[in-house]
UniProtKB/TrEMBL annotation:
InterPro entries: AB_hydrolase, AB_hydrolase_1, AB_hydrolase_fold. Residues 78-329 form the AB hydrolase-1 domain. One of its GO terms (molecular function) is hydrolase activity. It comes from the Bacteria. Keywords: Hydrolase. The keyword Hydrolase applies. This is Alpha/beta hydrolase.
Length: 348
């Protein structure tokens, strides 16, 4: 959810010397380890592409949409993948590859992310993202075409807001959903910086972002120049285990592609978000909830809170998994999604 802010503030903290000694040692150890380590066969990240319809939101933002077609017209449910903060549709690389050729898959870049158009700051709110999702569904699916919504982090919050705004579509159009590494609220006092308390973190976050937005060119150059530091920060904040270096670089590229102004535009919406009213609505359909035991962005307690509110859901807490479990432990995530699809399709 907050990888972008975490990278910026993490690098700033390092520069200020707050945690520089320990992380500089880690940076050197990581660099040495990956020099010695034999790399796994490379994944062709950023290469999965497909055409899609042009979608324009209610306030005029163009959304980049891609659709992987089904192998045949009666291929079952359509899977719609909704990504999180400072990422893009490419974060679904493994899930897209997993479902490709077996199900119709719809992916899109959220407003101001990836190849979608830039949004005015006042519309960078989760409620607006839910309206955008409705536009995507209208443009990519038939009225009677059943869909499963799968959301990671901010994408999971988007699905919760969608359920609250369009409750009549839950159980009719939307027949299943998965909430991955996300929260139903109470994020305003959560800190993602080591040594900074949850009460202090919100007071620091907005001033840092405001200052960064006053000198965006300088900040963007710093983000790209501080390669080693960014690698360590990304690795720490995204993953909970010793992942291949290419996973970290993949994440770093996605985060670095998000302008600092966009990081600041979206940040306030997380403190405001409350998805609790969506839970009884989502409880009417087949659900899956997955989180990482080592998630430092959206702690596992938030996943457990959702599980408690959706007692009928398939639930999984993945050990040694950080916020980006859809990459780090993609096989485990894919297995749960497979089971969700099977359960839904039994009732179609």
């Amino acid at each position: 959810m907050a990888q972008g802010f975490g990278l910026v503030t993490g690098i700033a903290a390092l520069a200020a010397g707050a945690v520089a000694t320990g992380w500089e040692l880690e940076r050197r150890l990581v660099a040495q380890r990956f020099k010695r380590r034999r790399e796994l066969p490379g994944e062709a990240f950023f290469t999965l592409r497909a055409p899609g319809p042009e979608v324009v939101t209610s306030d005029g933002v163009r959304l980049h949409v891609e659709v992987d077609p089904p192998p045949k017209s009666d291929a079952g449910v359509t899977v719609v993948l909704v990504h999180g903060y400072v990422l893009s549709l490419h974060c679904w690389h493994f899930q897209r590859k997993h479902f490709r050729g077996t199900r119709k898959v719809v992916l899109y870049d959220q407003r101001s992310h990836g190849r979608s158009g830039r949004s005015k700051a006042r519309f960078c709110r989760i409620d607006q993202l839910a309206k955008d999702l409705k536009r995507v569904l209208d443009a990519t699916t038939e009225p009677d075409e059943p869909v499963i919504l799968v959301g990671h982090s901010m994408g999971g919050m988007t699905i919760q807001a969608f359920a609250r705004q369009y409750p009549k579509l839950i159980g009719t159009k939307v027949v299943g959903a998965a909430l991955l590494a996300t929260s139903s609220g109470d994020l305003k006092d959560h800190s993602i910086i080591p040594g900074v308390s949850g009460e202090v973190f919100p007071m620091l976050a907005q001033p840092v972002l405001s200052a960064a937005n006053r000198v965006p060119a300088l900040v963007e150059r710093s983000r790209r120049v501080s390669t080693d530091v960014s690698f360590v920060v990304t690795r720490r904040m995204s993953f909970g285990s010793d992942v291949p270096a290419e996973y970290v670089h993949f994440m770093s590229e996605m985060v670095a592609a998000t302008p600092m102004e966009v990081v600041g535009d979206f940040y306030p919406t997380f403190a405001e978000f409350d998805g609790s009213r969506a839970m009884p609505i989502l409880g009417r359909i087949e659900m899956a909830v997955i989180g990482g035991a080592s998630d430092s962005i959206v702690p596992v307690e938030h996943t457990q809170a959702i599980i408690d509110q959706l007692p009928g859901a398939d639930a999984l807490i993945v050990p040694e998994s950080g916020h980006m479990g859809i990459i780090e432990h993609h096989q485990a995530y894919d297995e749960v999604l497979d089971h969700l699809v099977e359960r839904v399709e039994r009732h179609l």
